[in-house]
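Appendix C reproduces, verbatim, an entry submitted by the partner laboratory led by Prof. M.T., so that reviewers can inspect both the input and the predicted structure.
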Amino acid sequence: MRTLLVKNATLLATMDNDGQEVPGGGVYAEDGVIRAVGASGTLPDRADETIDARDMVILPGLVNTHHHFFQTLTRAVPAAQDADLFTWLKTLYPIWARLTPDAIAVSTKVALAELLLSGCTTASDHTYIWPNGARLDDQIEAAREMGVRFHAARGSMSLGESAGGLPPDSLIEEEVTILRDSRRVIETYHDPNRYAMLRIVLAPCSPFSVSPDLMRESLALARASGVHVHTHLAETRDEADYCLARFGKTPVELMEELGWVGDDVWHAHLVHPSTAEIARLGASRTGACHCPTSNMRLGSGIARVGDWLRAGLRVGLGVDGSASNDGSHLLAEARQAMLLQRVGGDPAALTARDALRLATRGGAAVLGRDDIGILAPGMAADLIGFRVDTLGFAGGAVHDPLAALVFCQPATVDLNIVDGRVRVRGGDILDVDVPALVAHHNRIARALERGG
């Protein structure tokens, strides 16, 4: 049996239903499962590995519910820096067409390294472009090496420009191929068990890049296989105009007609639904991923997160693609979420603790998991620690160390534990040569820019 003891935290925030916060708290785990949480003096005093969390705030690992790992290769591309979503996509599609299996693997590792350092322990990725022999398998192997709990989305695009879609025809796949490969990756990789390290998601890209038939058939396959589904929805006004012109419906109305609502569905962005649509999505317990930085970066608008929560949607956070956020820092995203909800004039619209709940147990709910996001007996031993005796937290940690994580300068973790195994210690990712990884990644990024 593999045992772990984390003790003496300045503050331990459980994120449980009572919002329990324990000064001097700790966690004891066996084989990657939490067995006890509480004041350090009440926990077992011995373990295979004991970590003194003095001067740290300990909380559940953060959960990222929307990303595009491959986009780390195209950050800050000059021609796409000041573009709206549709222009941004058309600018980057030709570069992404040169992606290779190696590019998919190395960008996955870079994105996950950033996420680990920002406090993420579980991540979902949405890759929808698979050129030049690239496959979801390339991501899965890379994620296993990084030691992160991974929800791998088999994304897809099937509607090219010649058929009225946005992407070039050279980047789409035949729908029969998409569905065949979707079945293959589910049968090969999906783990439905509690504490699973790997689950599969089916994720047709968007209403402007996938046919309604593929949306329906992907959903049917997912539900027959017991996996969740994910897509972009109502991100921009352009998308709304496209759906009204092509289908005579708003994006949300289209998804409702196709059956894409319910507790096994989550949508990214959801910036432009109507009040009535938010109410219907909430009633169906559909999930939503808030991506504040990306929405600001592309000028997409401000999502009504407070209304989502009041309506009953399952709500989490996502950093979104690293070419529309240009970073993968999930704690920074929690801070942006808090601040952006206040822009409308209500300084209490989203509190620091609200933002952290979205980033932990909220994300777990969006992914359909009841085994992560909370520090409690029977939950997965996924936990993170931020040192608060640092310059960036000077003063803030004295008054409210948990809120300081969100209000003060976004920090990187000192400690990150996934499945009871330490992945970051002292601010360093274990078993990863980060300089070599960055050098490899940048060589591929330069090759993509040059066109070969």
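The chain has 15 helices and 19 strands. Additional entries are available on request from the coordinating office.
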